[in-house]
Amino acid sequence: MKLHKLATVLAFGLCFFSALANASAAEDRSIRPFTVSIPQAALEDLRRRIAETRWPDRETVDDQSQGIQLAKLKPLVKYWGTGYDWRKAEAKLNTLPQFMTTIDGVETHFIHVRSKHPNALPLIMTHGWPGSVFELLKTVGPLTDPTAHGGRAEDAFDLVLPSMPGYGFSGKPTETGWGPDRIAQTWAELMKRLGYTRYVAQGGDWGSPVSSAMARQAPTGLLGIHINLPAVVPPEIAAVLAVGGPAPTGLTDKERAAFDALSAAAKMGNRSYATMMGTRPQTIGYAINDSPTGLAAWMLGHPGFSRWTYDNSDPEKSPDEVLDDITQYWLSNSATSAGRLYWEYGGRSVVFAAVERTLEIALPVAITVFPEETYLAPETWARRAYPNLIYFHEVDKGGHFAAWEQPELFSAELRAAFRPLRQDF
Amino acid sequence: MSTASPAPNRRDFLATSATALLATSAGAAAFNFTSSQPAAAAEASSIRPFTVSFPQEEIDELRRRIAATRWPDRELVSEAASRRTSATLAAGDTQGVQLATMQKLIQYWGTEYDWSKCEAQLKSLPHFVTEIDGLDIHFIHVKSSHQGALPVIITHGWPGSVIELLKVIDPLTNPTAHDGTAADAFDVVIPSMPGYGFSAKPTQPGWDPIRIAKAWTVLMKRLGYNRFVAQGGDWGALITEQMALMAPPELIAIHTNMPATIPPEIVKALAAGSPPPADLGPDEKRAYEQVAFFYKFGLGYANEMALRPQTLYGLVDSPAGLASWILDHDADSYALIARSFDGEPEGLTRDDILDNITLYWLTNTAISSARLYWEHRQTAKAGFFDAKGITIPVGVSANPSEIYTAPKSWTERAFPKLLHYGHPPKGCHFAAWEQPKYFTDDVRASFKTLRTA
């Protein structure tokens, strides 16, 4: 028993480290180097808990309609507890320059990679849930070092990848109010602190509302945004979807397809996780903070993972890829704090134009539509939603986690999308 | 959001599974049957005695896990906001079960709490198992010593179990010891629903409330009862209502403490998210607001279980995760339970709460029980609280702290043969558990006139 307690205490070693740094900095604006170093005892505690997983009986259906299937989860959890090596994930992070800075009372962790090319365009990219900076790591090379990845020197970006408050190695807010608007303000302050006077922003999933809020707020220096989960659903379509009504007449083929996808997702209950975290994040928080298997299942329940097999059939979606992300949630003890972002948003959908107040965005907006996204934004709706749409492109590969699944294609899209804004730069 | 929605009918699939052999799950293996398992289908309809018994290692293992609980950080809202009841609750008040409450619960559960007392109480009752429709069904069966006792089948709900009904067994079967007369006596049958407690876990889909209702009628007839009544709250209410809709000739009346009374025009207004219609009386307006709020902000857990029950792996791997999930049923019962862990018990003690949670843990039924929400969603034609057109006699308890307090006007419309409209001074969603005396009074009053037949 003592060993378990010790392990639990040690698991908080990282937080302790952060707190220490914070105390000595006394709310200053300094930017402090940061290295991830999880105590070995925390990793052993995790392995022990994984090995002791107590399983339910098998689902009573032969598909995913009751949730994460037992036979699909078991091999992943087994590998997690035996073959998986967090130290490799830690090394992936630690080969990149990481920093901490306190903004608005919350410690903000971020990766900051400057390009070797002069005049690189500064870009702040925001992850989502159940993602983290891990979902963005494979774009660091292509974006900051384009000449090594099929691009040109003038396509280079200086890249800033923060962990949202309550996520990963950032601090956990201790008061309410940390929705996308406040995160957006924090990001603007971060870019300012880094000395960037002209920059762009990008995001999918929660990164989309955060980037959109930045565009709405239009802080000095922000030139435009690119999003891969745009909020284009018009109010009259949102109203029909809210009551589960039939498709309105007069839709184009692509609008009809988008409506059907959203309608089917609603009927299949694909957002049940969002409803739960949107109303009672603390209640689900105990189970997923105490059970690694519970956490893994809860995260893999996101529809963005529905086509992932967590095996080695696709190197971009290998078990290590998802386990790096899940393990980071576990080790940073952030399953509950991350879920609160849904509560802050009242469980509302981030694809509705009215929810995102897209008409208030005057800055340039660029959109890439990835074919396996939860719905495919039609260009007609996108033009209605975003008055200043400078780029709209449908690509042939990739899903909800576009940067994770198709890093090269994703990077090429960002180069193309932001190219016109460089002329102002 | 109502969990009722159109979905493919899976009944066709059931025909093939009716004769399927029972699966023995990890949880079921923990039970000791005092009689041998049925060796052949011919013995399936036999009624076998059942003894509750868990190995000490499982109790020890539970305690070890409780002690190793890994906590999240505290919720970001105040205690006052977290404890607000349905009368005052507003959007954005609560983030769920409070850390301080959970820590008190876990501290007590892992140290002072003694499961063996609950096990002894269960063992003092006659338990049986019988196979119905391919599944082993557990039930408690207590016969009254009084002649002419009225047989009643009482069904628990989620997150309840037979434990929520233990306090009413003696008042119902032995009324002369509990302010009643011999003429108030009942023979009591208390089954565990499929996937719950000591009943088997279905391994095929199809065990929705309708199928359970059918099984209950089979059970009562198998026990030799040809004239009986049924009672329930929560899922027990839905199942009891389904029995009433089927109206087998043996079922003469029902009593429900979660009456489904919402009239069709109100169902429509709720679905549209409209404000309360202007012509509602004060009780109706309050009921409307309670239901509207519950559908919008209180159903997250039900929604998750109706849509992705299997994703809740954490509930069977983490005692704290299971406990918090079970505590967060509805605002009023949560406030009551939380006060109990603060040292102010009113009807539900810490032991009451933990007896029930421990039963879910030891039987490993968190997910198998959650599937009832999923099953309901496949076939339900109406929401939990919508009036369903019952024509047989019905008695009602409209508890003041229920998810919604059924107004008398709606109750009279929903149940044309209303036997009794009870309005106890106190009582939450778990009426039989929290206020066994008021519950017993209402059940007696409801069926009094039917005893002479």
Automatic annotation (TrEMBL), chain A:
Keyword Cell membrane: no
Assigned keywords, A-Z: Aromatic hydrocarbons catabolism, Hydrolase, Signal
Organism domain of life: Bacteria
Signal sequence bounds: 1-21
Swiss-Prot/TrEMBL GO biological process terms: epoxide metabolic process
Active-site positions on this chain: 205, 342, 400
Assigned EC number: 3.3.2.10
Keyword Hydrolase included in the entry's annotation: yes
Pfam families, A to Z: EHN
One example GO MF annotation: epoxide hydrolase activity
InterPro entries: AB_hydrolase_fold, Epox_hydrolase-like, Epoxide_hydro_N, Epoxide_hydrolase
Residue intervals of the Epoxide hydrolase N-terminal domain: 31-135
Family that this chain belongs to: Belongs to the peptidase S33 family.
PANTHER family documented for this protein: EPOXIDE HYDROLASE, EPOXIDE HYDROLASE 1-RELATED
Protein name: Putative epoxide hydrolase
Organism: Mesorhizobium prunaredense
From TrEMBL, chain B:
One BP annotation, GO: epoxide metabolic process
Domain of life: Bacteria
Epoxide hydrolase N-terminal domain residues: 47-164
Group of enzyme by EC: hydrolase
Single GO MF annotation: epoxide hydrolase activity
Positions in coiled-coil regions: none
Family classification: Belongs to the peptidase S33 family.
The protein's name in its UniProt record: Putative epoxide hydrolase
Source organism (scientific name): Mesorhizobium prunaredense
